[in-house]
Specification:
This protein is α/β, with parallel strands linked by helices. The chain contains 15 helices and five strands.
Amino acid sequence: MPVTLLLDLAGTAFADWSAALDRTDPHPLTPCEGHNLVQCTISNSPALVLCRAAGLSAGLEAALAGWHAEPPCAVLLLTPPGALSAEDAARVVALGIHHWQAVAGDVSAAELDAARATARARWLREAALRQSLASTREHLDERKWVDRAKGVLMSTRELGEDEAFRLLRSAAMTVNVRVGELSRSVFETARWADAINRAGQLRMLSQRLVRTVAQRLLKFDERAVEATLRQSAQRVRDNLEMLAGQCAGTSAQDDCARAAARWDALARALATPRIDVAALLRIDRCADDLLAAAEALAAALQVAADRRALHIVNQCGRQRMRVQRVAKESLLAALQGPQGDVQVFAARRDAALEEFERAQRELELAPLSSAAIRARLGDVREEWLRLLGGLRTAESADGRRALVHASDVLLQTLDALTAAYEHSLQVIMA
């Protein structure tokens, strides 16, 4: 049963007006101290808090501050005549007090009844206004997420606006959630999928940059080499900038910063005026540091997203790196010549080949699929066989050229497959 909390800050007992309260207030009277007013309110769920004070004091402000001007019930303040100035009255309102009344001597039952009714009426009106405001804000927030989710579906699934909304509404009914809640999840899933894709691109680009510098030393496709280096470096910078915004304030923020630091080291190594084989191997070590940091970042993003379906975007994106690594290790082995230790590069190449085959089989058997995804998987398998053909002749200049070309074509095909997973309805609606 609700009670009336009595907070006496006047320094004297409240016996002179407690009798009047007894006659007019239907709720039990419960004394309360200022330091635990908020806790008493939580424990007793009062219908009214009645404060008696000599004026606006630090004690009264401290007692009411815990509500942040939104008390959970009506608050009535009784003071002596003239105790509150105009400035004090404005402060009293700011503290969340709904009515105050100056009283002298004994308080009549009629006075208390009228003051209490006024305080309750004002609190009820404020509560209704707050509820209306919250409902309006919730509606606007829901519309915002619905519009964003419709945009995702319209761009990724090539749907019209009405069709996108019908899909959202149908999915929300299926899983028994509000359409705004589902829309927010759809939009955030799309953002996380894009972030994981971009982190995966960092892995690939780390290997592609080394492969391209190796091409320069082997002196083939030299005009394309410079363009690829510029484009790849810019792509790294763009992705890191986008990821910094996406990761800010999340558990992946530190991993993103480490990836950026590893890129700075690689960029400095790439800026070496005259690059020979020894310098290239230093670049390769920096690239592998970036690869490890990007791998950690992609994993952190997957954890932060907390959406299991995004695993397949990460797995597919990792295939792009393996293709570039196969080509890179083959070119590094060629640069070592007959006197070099080519076994290290051959072992790393073979490991990447094995990892690619294993992961590709997992992708082909994964239940997450569609007609478009199955077609892309077939394209990847076809281009992979072409790359293996180029790999068998990589000891010759023509074979290395064919290998690099095949790795670029396969990279484009894997980019398309990763995008297909990223934009698949199963991933987006997960």
